[in-house]
């Protein structure tokens, strides 16, 4: 059955490492990551079994459609509200009872994880976990400005529910489940595929930045709440790429958003970031996860033009340039461009010593 297949996928995708830090057992608020201390198949945020299998299918559908992680969280939270992540048939739709299902409802002709009515499409599609999720993503991604909307507003704009404020309560559980399925663990203890940061505050900033991977670059875009509409650069590359019509981040805007999660105000301009967090760290061997990597065209502060957030292991998450999206780049210390332009890193973590 589809649920069994999805559960197998969950077992392969779920990466949760052990930890003695019980204070983090509930996960990090507002961050897409799994609570530590579990094992594959264990309940996450109160959901288990076929519910997690269905959530895995929703996340997999988003990945296939290249939907950003934020869209995946919105989709999972919506299904939590609509069906508690159970596949519903409907007693008023007799054909639905012949298809694989876990529970039976009776709300109009609504079926499936998202309680989609007949206007959404064929019954077989609405009662297939991955296919019905793709219907949801199609409408969400076509919604202008969805990236900057609160989760409940984005979900309501797609679902048109009679209870428009009900989705908000599911945001944190959805963060945890998407983190679990994606192999991102809140704790930095042990292995796993997520970034490692000894400083818990650095981990929060890193996860906030990573949660925006796939969001468009928009020159001048981004604030403490998330992506915003870009601005005109007077006919330069950003104008030619239409950045003023996009909702997204530029490189410093992504830093503003990442560090707002720990209450640190970062200037929305690269040279100002450099000036705000002196002294710099100029030895690459001393750069730690959560530090901001600064690039300069001439080796001097006046030439600083780009910033990215260091993840450790030679990896950086950044918003590169017009026409691109927020992304992770690997092996920067082996890159001629990054090593040539590197002027230093700055550390915005409060109460953290610099080398």
TrEMBL record:
Domain NlpC/P60: 199-349
Keywords carried by this UniProt record: Hydrolase, Protease, Signal, Thiol protease
Signal peptide per UniProt: 1-25
InterPro entries tied to this protein: NLP_P60_dom, Papain-like_cys_pep_sf, PG_Endopeptidase_C40
Gene3D superfamilies (UniProt xref): endopeptidase domain like (from Nostoc punctiforme) (3.90.1720.10)
Keyword Hydrolase: yes
Homology family: Belongs to the peptidase C40 family.
Protein name stated in the entry: C40 family peptidase
Taxon lineage: Bacteria, Bacillati, Actinomycetota, Actinomycetes, Pseudonocardiales
């Amino acid at each position: 059955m589809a649920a069994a297949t999805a559960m197998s996928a969950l077992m392969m995708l779920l990466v949760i490492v052990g930890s003695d830090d019980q204070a983090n057992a509930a996960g990090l608020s507002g961050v897409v990551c799994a609570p530590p201390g579990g094992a594959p198949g264990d309940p996450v945020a109160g959901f288990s079994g076929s519910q997690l299998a269905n959530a895995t299918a929703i996340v997999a559908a988003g990945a296939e459609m290249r939907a950003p992680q934020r869209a995946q969280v919105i989709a999972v939270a919506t299904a939590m509200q609509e069906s508690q992540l159970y596949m519903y048939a409907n007693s008023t739709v007799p054909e639905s009872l012949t298809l694989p299902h876990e529970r039976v409802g009776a709300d109009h002709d609504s079926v499936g994880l998202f309680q989609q009515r007949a206007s959404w499409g064929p019954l077989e599609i609405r009662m297939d976990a991955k296919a019905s999720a793709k219907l949801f993503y199609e409408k969400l991604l076509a919604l202008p400005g969805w990236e900057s909307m609160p989760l409940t507003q984005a979900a309501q704009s797609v679902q048109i529910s009679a209870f428009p404020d009900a989705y908000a309560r599911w945001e944190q559980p959805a963060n945890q489940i998407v983190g679990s399925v994606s192999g991102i663990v809140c704790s930095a203890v042990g292995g796993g595929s997520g970034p490692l940061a000894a400083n818990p505050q650095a981990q929060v900033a890193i996860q906030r930045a990573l949660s925006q991977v796939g969001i468009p670059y928009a020159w001048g875009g981004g604030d403490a709440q998330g992506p915003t509409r870009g601005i005109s650069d007077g006919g330069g590359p950003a104008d030619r790429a239409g950045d003023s019509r996009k909702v997204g981040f530029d490189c410093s805007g992504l830093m503003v958003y990442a560090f707002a999660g720990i209450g640190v105000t970062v200037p929305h301009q690269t040279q100002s970031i450099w000036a705000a967090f002196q002294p710099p760290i100029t030895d690459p061997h001393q750069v730690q996860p959560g530090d901001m990597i600064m690039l300069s065209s001439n080796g001097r502060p006046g030439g600083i033009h780009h910033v990215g957030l260091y993840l450790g292991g030679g990896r950086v998450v950044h918003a590169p340039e017009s026409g691109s999206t927020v992304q992770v780049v690997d092996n920067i210390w082996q890159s001629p461009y990054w090593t040539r332009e590197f002027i230093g890193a700055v550390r915005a973590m409060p109460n953290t010593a610099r080398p």
